[in-house]
Structure formats: C-alpha cells, structure tokens
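Dear U.,

For the methods section draft, I wanted the exact inputs and outputs in one place so we can describe them consistently. I've listed the two proteins in the order they'll appear in the manuscript figures. Please don't edit the token lines directly; just add comments below if something needs changing.

First protein:
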Amino acid sequence: MKKLSAIFLAIGTFSLLISSCEEENCPPNALAYAVFALSDQYGNPIQFSNPISIIGQIETDVVVNDTLEDGSIHEITKPDSIINDTIINQESAAEHFKLPLSYDSQTRFIIAYNETTFDTITVTHQNIPYFTNLDCGTMMFYNVTNTSFTQHVLDSLTITNPNIDNNEKENFKIYYTNVAAGE
C-alpha cells in the first residue's frame, strides 16, 4: 500500500510541475520599427536610382574621462552632445525603410542623398512599454505625436499610422517630386 501511495504522490507531483510550466509564446519580432514608404507627389511608390544613407542622431549628455598629470581620472560631462550613427549605408532601389526609434521622446534621422545634400526628419513620440510575460520581457511601442522635416529634396511627409508596434506596417509616407527622386 505504501508503494502505491508513493507512486500516486510522484505522479501527482510530476503532473503539477508539468502543468505549471509556462509555454513560451513570445512574438517572433520583439522590436518595433517605424516604416517610411517613399513615394512621388501622386502617392506612387518610387525608388532612388542613386544609393542613399540614413543616419540616426540623438542629443544627450556625454561623460568624458580625462586623465590628469598625477594619474587621477577626472570626469567631465559635456551637455547636449550630438551623437550620429549610420543606420542604413548606401541603400539602392529601396521603396521603404524600417528604422528604430529612440527611447527618448524624440528621434531624428538624416537622409543623405549624396555627400552634400541632406534632409532631416524629426519624429516626436510617446514611448509605451508593452509587457507580454516574464519569459519574453518588455517591448517598446510608440505613439507618434508630431513630425518636422527639412525640404531640401524631400517634398512632404505624412503620418499614415501613428501607432508603431512590432507589426510591420507603413507609418510614414515621404513624398518626393519626380525630378528629385531620380537624383
């Protein structure tokens, strides 16, 4: 009888452990990208004939460590420093771009058409942490509240979907004139 109770106890404990394990249902894409579609003035998709680059730019305080003559290290904070990072380098024939947004409330992108011609796009957004479960962690979604841009080559920009999440869909449409798109 004692053997039978021990077997039932072992089976019961094992079944409780199996049922308490959580199945990992994490989304395959845990990153949220802003999708920028390129179009002509009529809304038709376009591709640039020359390669373009996109540079992410943030403004932040940077801590610099300076070694003094006596060997001690002195920390200096440089306020409002601008940091650039190339996100897309020399992309050819693209109809859209998927770009990450900053965890700050504002993200700035520089579109470099060539070495001397640039446009800047600034996206103002609210960051929305999204918790799936303990196994997956937290994702960051965004709600776009405003945009501003320069108009050197770029004609206009519209927000087509202000909610940026991990479902890849068009969020912005960048309009160019036919002459500018061929450059």
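Second protein (the one for the lower panel):
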Amino acid sequence: MGQIKVTKCPIEGLYIIEPAVHGDDRGYFMETYNQNDMHEAGLDMEFVQDNQSMSKKGVLRGLHFQKQYPQGKLVRVVKGAVFDVAVDLRAGSETYGKWYGVELTEENKKQFYVSEGFAHGFLVLSDVAEFCYKVTDFYHPGDESGLAWNDPEIGIEWPQVVGEYQGSASAEGYVMEDGTKLNLSEKDQKWLRLKDTFKF
C-alpha cells in the first residue's frame, strides 16, 4: 500500500498519478497499477480493457470522446514523450470547455487519469512514442466523436507547435518547431469546434 502519489489537477476529475519507482544499477521496478492503492486514494474506477499504440513525432491523436458510452482513461508513456490533454465536456461543469495538459514521458513515469466526460488527445514530442492506457468501458463502434484539436475557443497550448488557426481542424500550415509536419488522421482533421458540436 502507499505505492503511489496522487495529485488532483485544477479541473475536477483529472489526476496525476506517480508510482513508486525502485531502482538500482540493474534497472528499476514499479507497480503500474494496484487496485488497493487506487482505492486508498479514493479512485474507485474499474478497468475493462488495456490498449497500446505507437506513434511517430508530430502525430496528434484527438480530441476524442465516446457519446453514449464514455470512458475513463488511465494513460502513460512507456517509450518517448507526449503532451497529453483532456477537455471538460460535462454539461453544467464550472470548468466546461476548459483544458488541462501534462507531459508524460518514459523518464517521469507519470500517469494521467481522465474521468468520463472529457475529450482526450495527445501530441507526440519524441521521435517515437509508445502509449498505454486502461479504460473503464469498451470501445463501441459508431459511438466515437471528437472536437477540433485547434479550436480557438478551447485554446490548447500545444508545445512546439507553430501555425495559425485557419477555420478548420486541418493540419495544413502547422509544423513542429523543428520543421516536422503535424500528422493527423483524416477523421481528426474534420472534427468541428466545441460550439458547433454541443448546443445547450
């Protein structure tokens, strides 16, 4: 017990989780997930699936959410570095439309828990990144939706990205500071702005 440090983020429902890392000249060991420690910290979510992806520098995935079957996500990086972002989509929330981001790297070993009701995305900052995450519900085909990653109303400050909003989620005209072009899926370049996606 007590093998993790949990820090609440400025937006309710987001947490930074830092595991205890036991290292010596041979390498290191850590528990990447312990249900008892999570429950002791007041985090009672139940995970049903583990996912892993590999992406190259400049790849931006997001901002994604599921409409009818929202997922809580516990995310971490096992190789490389990403800038990971959550956007509050909870109707009636005091922080609706606000974002929070954290750099996750193989060195800092931080994990980011994103509760249900948030859109999620990440940008790869290293040459290659391997990204792992646990989810609280299964993926349901046809239930996925998203938001424009560069919506000026949300105003995410993506590190190392240079370019100006041209009225859509297209990656055209955006590059990393070292000249690497942003790489988004065709679907992610077609998501609309927050105000066009949700009308209360």
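Candidate sentences for the figure legend, describing the second protein: The radius of gyration is 17 Å. The longest helix spans residues 35-40.

Thanks,
Y.
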